[in-house]
Structure formats: structure tokens, C-alpha cells
From TrEMBL:
Keyword Transmembrane: yes
Biased composition annotated in UniProt, kind: Basic residues: 108-117
Protein name: Uncharacterized protein
Record key words, sorted: Membrane, Transmembrane, Transmembrane helix
Lineage, top ranks: Eukaryota, Metazoa, Ecdysozoa, Arthropoda, Crustacea
Region (Disordered): 27-117
Organism for this UniProt entry: Halocaridina rubra
Record field: compositional bias (Acidic residues): 27-66, 74-105
TM helices/strands, residue ranges: 6-26
Length: 135
């Protein structure tokens, strides 16, 4: 009977050790799976972060492009305004020149009229002088 009990004890201990070994192996596999899942999760998170960063960079680039376009539009508007002002100034200058020319023409006309008057006066006075000389 002692042999029988020893046999039972050894078989039971072997079975318990096998169960312990199996559970250790299973837990190691589970831990490895968990680690792999964690690594995959971390990789996915990193990829998501990279995608988010890329999206943010793209958005920033778009905003910068929009700002540049706005600045260009503002500059173009300013240039157009300056051109319009220059054109207005040129028109004003042209008008001033036209006015100056008109004034000069009026002065010339007045001078001509004055000269004509003088000429007519001399013409009318000339016969009297001639008559005086002869008389």
C-alpha cells in the first residue's frame, strides 16, 4: 500500500506541476499577446499622431497660403489704388496743364486783341500824323 500511495502522490504532484507549467506557459503567451497588442496600439497611436501632425501642418500651410493670397490681394489693391491715384494726379496735372494752356491762350488772345487795338489806333492816328507833317 505504501507503494500505491507513493505512486498516487507522485502522479498527483506530476499532474499539479504540469498544471502549473501549463498555466505559466498560458500566462506567458497571454502576456506576450498583450505586449504585442500594446505595441500595435502604440504603433497605431504613433501613426495617428503622425497623421494628425501632417494634417495640422497641411492646415498651417493652407492658412499661410491664404494669408499670402490675402496679402497679395491687399498689395494688388494698394497698387491699383496707387495707380488710380497716379492716374488721377496725372489727370489733374493734365487738367492743370490744360487750364494753364487755356490761360496762356486767353492771355495771348488778350495780347493780340490789345495789339490789334494798338494797330487800329495807329492806323487811325497815322493819317492825322501824316496830315500834320504836311500841314
Amino acid at each position: 500500500m505504501a507503494l500505491h500511495t507513493n505512486y498516487l502522490i507522485t502522479t498527483i504532484t506530476i499532474m499539479i506541476m504540469m498544471v502549473i507549467i501549463i498555466t505559466i506557459i498560458i500566462t506567458e503567451e497571454e502576456e506576450e499577446e498583450e505586449e504585442e497588442e500594446e505595441e500595435e496600439d502604440e504603433e497605431e497611436e504613433e501613426e495617428e499622431e503622425e497623421e494628425e501632425e501632417e494634417e495640422e501642418e497641411e492646415e498651417e500651410e493652407e492658412e499661410e497660403e491664404k494669408e499670402k493670397e490675402k496679402e497679395k490681394e491687399k498689395e494688388e489693391e494698394e497698387e491699383e489704388e496707387e495707380e488710380e491715384e497716379e492716374e488721377d494726379e496725372e489727370e489733374d496735372e493734365d487738367e492743370d496743364e490744360d487750364e494753364d494752356e487755356d490761360e496762356e491762350e486767353e492771355r495771348r488772345k488778350k495780347k493780340k486783341k490789345k495789339k490789334k487795338k494798338k494797330i487800329t489806333i495807329y492806323i487811325y492816328l497815322a493819317p492825322w500824323h501824316i496830315m500834320r507833317l504836311y500841314n
